[in-house]
Amino acid sequence: MKIGFISSILDGWTYDEMMDTAAEMRFQCVEVAAWPAGKAERRYAGVSHIDAENLSDESASHYLKVASERGIEISALAFYPNNMDPNQEKRAANISHLYKVIDASAKMGVNMVTTFIGRDQTKNVEDNLELVKQIWPPIIEYARKKGVRIAIENCPMLFGPDQWPGGQNLMTAPSLWRKIFEILPYENFGLNYDPSHFVWQMMDYIKPIYEFHDKLFQVHFKDLKVRKDKLNEVGIMAYPLDFMVPKLPGYGDVEWGRFVSALTDVGFDGCACIEIEDKAFEGSRERILDSLRISKRYMDQFVI
After folding, report:
1. Residue 304 covered by a domain
2. How many structural domains does the chain have?
3. I need a surface site. Which of 116, 131, 161, 264 has the fewest CB within 10 A?
């Protein structure tokens, strides 16, 4: 198992600076953000350390040379939009860029893309499953022919009123994973598994590791704290951010020893990338760097 981080936290750093940071802190891998440049619609999105849209042979060679010289593996190219957005224009733009990220991942020999399956938040689950059947087979088949794996993170993308009521990512729970893997029975289609999203949904984040071990393409190390005092005030039907707070690994409710132990049980030896969305560490560049240092120091006790 290799420890890395998703590079979106280093917004404002160049690719070379981001890779220098990874090397200085002795990370082994990086999940590199590859959004369309300058088109952020939410926090931690819109970061573009690799410009997939304009990737030339020269720029690809530069990206790979920098990573190799620093001993850093690029685990995946990351682009997390709503690929089933109810707005047809947004959906088309997101999917168009996703194809470019797939192309870039293949061109660079990274061969993995991390993303969301998406969701039309105005439709019920059953209608969204029908959308999966329409939208995703050609994307996965295209990636398969390119030798690229697609890893879907299990974040519900449901935070506040903008994502209410259904959230913007359908692939949130084991019951839905089974249905979607049945619809998309491709070997190159799997999970980017993040335990923190199970915490606020009041779900077991250990058991699914055993059932879906062959679909664990990558793992996110992100923590989350449920504020019981807030939950008692608003209940589970409230906007999730009314009762939960994303935190650094070790600062929340995930039992990381149990989680990593389960990963070792199933022989997971891929990349585990720290994802930071802790507002307590956003005040300055140094504070952001502190968040990476603290997270790595904590996770190093579990991953050798």
Report:
1. no
2. 1
3. 161
Domain carrying residue 29: 2-299
Q: Two tokens at 61? A: 């060679």
> Please, is 169 exposed, middle or buried when counting C-beta atoms within 10 Å of its C-beta (0-12, 13-18, 19+)?
buried
pLDDT digits (tens, 9 = 90+) for 156-202: 999 999 999 999 999 999 999 999 999 999 999 999 999 999 999 99
186 burial type by CB count under 10 A (0-12 exposed, 13-18 middle, 19+ buried): middle
Is 126 a member of any domain? yes
List, as one string, the DSSP characters of 68-121: HHTT-EEEEEE----TT-SSHHHHHHHHHHHHHHHHHHHHTT--EEEE-----T
Look up the pTM and report it.
0.96
> Residue 177 domain-assigned?
yes
Query: What are 137-160's pLDDT values in tens digits?
Result: 999 999 999 999 999 999 999 999
